[in-house]
Amino acid sequence: VRKAVIQCLFCASLTFGIWAALFLIYMHYNHVSNPQKRSQEPVSAWSLEQNVQQKIIHDSEQISKPHVTVKDEPEKLRPFDFNYTDPEFLDGFSKYGFNTIISRSVGFERDVPDTRHKMCLQKHYSVHLPTASVIICFHNEEFNALLRTLSSVVNLTPHNFLEEIILVDDMSEFDDLKEKLDYHLEIFRGKVKLIRNKEREGLIRARLIGASRASGDVLVFLDSHCEVNRGWLEPLLYAITKDPKMVVCPLIDVIDETTLEYKPSPVVRGAFDWNLQFKWDNVFSYEMDGPDGPIKPIRSPVMAGGIFAIYRHYFNEIGQYDKGMDLWGGENLELSLRIWMCGGQLFTIPCSRVGHISKKDSKNHEISKAVTRNYLRLVHVWLDEYKEQFFLRRPSLKFTTYGNISERVELRKRLGCKSFQWYLDTVFPELEVSVDS
């Protein structure tokens, strides 16, 4: 019996020792592997909201910037079967110009594919670049799209270059852009300045209001339905440091209005026709010669309008926007002509990528009237004798009123601007002139 007891105790001790060893091995593995796992997981700016708000309470003068760790591989949107007769689907397109069901499911932030050319990844920029004030104006924007714009800028812009984000609400009417927006902006306190216009100003004058409150060295204008990509700002700032009269645009990637899929854009330049309709144009192969090849800055006759960067003092020196223009439309062409004809340069920077929702806009009578007025102001100030090329195609507008342009004509004289003939010869010779038969 004694021998049996000793054997039982020996077996029990052995079993306990094996289990104890296994437990210690498990604890060691868990201690080592879990921090690694946690360090690989992206930190959401929105998940930091509670921590940031606590920091606001304890130290209102020192707010650390929320940051997202960008994953190597972006999440792909789940396949979605659209019911194109769904009232909610149709209402989203009617109100906002894109699929709000998907926008709501995506939420306030996401990773998008890095669409830069691989050569861009080898570029390194100084830590002493100028600071930027990012100006975003909105009127009745879809809530999630607006918050994605903001969070992408905060999360993918180096802290030392981002002076501020100036958010201008141009008299929005929707409820979720009031108290709800104020609440969600708390996470960005210290970086986002919200201005609410007391009356509808339109995009052009709203941008001027935002610019007047900016303190950064460079003004960066963004639309309110964008998502900036990795390394988007540094190439723009670097180009401006080389020439303070250089105005630069990112390459604008497409965010599909139905699926919200982020799609890379080829290297293109801005152009227009004699109807003053903006269009994208192919880049000549010789413009991409040299060691930089596909990432070389591209001369662009005009900008698309919503997304560009300009040295703040140069923006003021060159005359800002034409305050006599209404709402939006044509201001991008007018500013582009002024930049080129008055001693500046306009370039697209392929290493800077910004996604933009290609909204399905339905122009109402008010907007169509504003666009017509804006075009006429541009034509009579900047096209010289070539304004007849416009009226050849739009004869009904020849005697339409467009307001007082004396201040803009005087600005052109004061800046010593060149003729539109010079612009055609030097910048955009591909714009062919029609002969009136």
CATH class of the domain at 110-357: Alpha Beta
Decide which structural class fits the backbone.
alpha/beta
Stated plainly, the CATH topology of the domain at 110-357 is called Spore Coat Polysaccharide Biosynthesis Protein SpsA, Chain A
Ranges with pLDDT <50 over ≥5 residues?
28-79
The helix content, as a percent range, equals 25-40%
Count of distinct strands: 12
Q: What is the name of the CATH superfamily of the domain at 110-357?
A: Spore Coat Polysaccharide Biosynthesis Protein SpsA, Chain A
Counting H and I runs of at least 4 residues, what is the number of helices? 14
* Rg calc: 28 Å
Distance between the termini: 125 Å
- So what's the overall shape? globular
Protein name: Polypeptide N-acetylgalactosaminyltransferase like 5
InterPro entries: GalNAc-T, Glyco_trans_2-like, Nucleotide-diphossugar_trans
Keywords: Disulfide bond, Glycoprotein, Manganese, Membrane, Signal-anchor, Transmembrane, Transmembrane helix
Membrane topology: Single-pass type II membrane protein
Description:
The protein is of the alpha/beta class and 437 residues long. Among the domains are: 248 residues, Spore Coat Polysaccharide Biosynthesis Protein SpsA, Chain A; 46 residues, Helicase, Ruva Protein, domain 3 (Orthogonal Bundle), CATH 1.10.8.460. The chain is built from 14 helices and twelve strands. Strands 3-2-1-4-11 form a five-stranded mixed β-sheet, with helices on both faces. Strands 5, 6, 7, 10 and 12 form a five-stranded mixed β-sheet that branches. Strands 8-9 form a two-stranded antiparallel ribbon. Strand 6 and strand 7 form a beta hairpin. It is globular. It starts with a helix and ends in an 11-residue tail after the last helix. Belongs to the glycosyltransferase 2 family. GalNAc-T subfamily.
